[in-house]
Amino acid sequence: WDEATLRSNVEDAFRTHALAEENRQLQHAVTAANQALTQLNDELKESLAHKELQVLHNAVTLDIAQEAMQYLPFPVIGIDNDNMIAFANAAADKLFIENMPLLASHASTALPPRLLETLKKGSTTPDRLDIGGTTYRLRCEQMGTDSRSIGTLVVLLPETPA
After folding, report:
1. Would you put residue 110 in left (φ > 0), alpha (ψ -120 to 50) or beta?
2. What angle (nearest 5°) sits at the alpha carbon of residue 48, between those of residues 43 and 49?
3. How many angstroms separate the Cα of 153 from the Cα of each of 26, 82, 84, 98, 158?
4. Which end of the chain, N or C, is surrounded by fewer C-beta atoms within 10 Å?
5. For residues 90 and 133, what is the distance between their CA atoms, to the nearest angstrom?
6. What SS3 string covers 23-84?
7. What residues contact 72, with CB distance under 8 A and at least 6 apart?
8. pLDDT tens digits, residue range 57-77?
9. Contact 151/79 with Cβ under 8 angstroms?
10. Is the pLDDT of residue 129 over 70?
């Protein structure tokens, strides 16, 4: 036998064995990584399904709340920090409407000056306001302490004559 050839064949055998061992280790690492990714993917799918249900539940709750607010028999108005009317129920539109709905109107152009004065004061103490021959007890509440809503909620409760 040729010693150089034998040495070369032995070295090739060791390299082949080392490469085969490295290949097995890499294959094992890839398999472990794939299993971890599969588990993470399943967890993400479950989390996404839970979030989708939560969003659906919140949307239904919001729809119910908005519809309930529309049918309240007294005016309710939500005003954002830019003094834009972000919410107005049907009773508010009926009370203040002048050829356009209140929603998305600027409070300074859509609401009476006396109401705007109360809003500027920022008072949460009930005030009284006469509109169209009816006296309303006016209540203004800052929003955002219990939710992410920011602005003022205005409620006008008609007073019944004594």
Report:
1. alpha
2. 100
3. 63, 13, 12, 21, 16
4. C
5. 19
6. HHHHHHHHHHHHHHHHHHHHHHHHHHHHHHHHHHHHHHHHHHHHHHHHCCCCCEEEECCCCE
7. 89, 91
8. 999 999 999 899 999 999 999
9. yes
10. yes
Q: What length is written for the chain?
A: 162
- Report the amino acid identity of residue 133: G
Could you tell me the two tokens for 102?
A: 């209140």
Distance (Å, whole) CA 88 – CA 39 = 48
Is residue 78 within 8 A of residue 153, CB to CB? The reply is yes
User: Which token pair is 131?
Assistant: 């509109």
Kindly state the average pLDDT of the residues 76-98: 90
Rounded to whole angstroms, the Cα distance separating 19 from 61 reads 61
**The tokens 């588990």 sit on which residue?**
39
For the chain, the first-to-last Cα distance in angstroms comes to 124
- Report the Cα 144 to chain-centroid distance in Å: 14
